Amino acid sequence: MIFPAKPDEATRRALKANGFRWSPSQGAWQRHLNEAGRWGAERVMKAITAEGAA
């Protein structure tokens, strides 16, 4: 996942909790693309959009 700026603390916590790790060389939050990765990405997106709506 790529963000236009450094994500806030809550977003970074959600990414880490769902298995994403920061890749400085790629400038992106990454994890393996498999079913678990897709599920984790969905959870992060739900957490981010719920956070923005609050």
Walk me through what this model shows:
- The chain is mainly alpha-helical and 54 residues long.
- The protein is 52% helix and 11% strand.
- The chain contains 2 helices and 2 strands.
- The protein starts with 8 loop residues before the first helix and ends with a helix.
- The relative contact order is 0.21.
- The mean pLDDT is 93.
Give the helix/strand class: mainly alpha
Tally of extended strands? 2
Percentage beta strand: 5-15%
Q: In whole angstroms, how far apart are the ends?
A: 22 Å
Order of helices and strands: HEEH
Strand order of the largest sheet: 1-2
Q: How many distinct helices?
A: 2
- Nearest-integer average pLDDT: 93
Shape, per Cα inertia axes = globular
Secondary-structure topology with pairs:
Blueprint: H1 9-17, E1 21-23, E2 28-30, H2 35-53
Helix pairs in contact: 1-2
Provide a compact summary of the structure.
This protein has 54 residues and is mainly α. It is 52% helix and 11% strand. It contains 2 helices and 2 strands, in the order αββα.
Q: Descriptors for this entry?
A:
54 residues; mainly alpha; globular
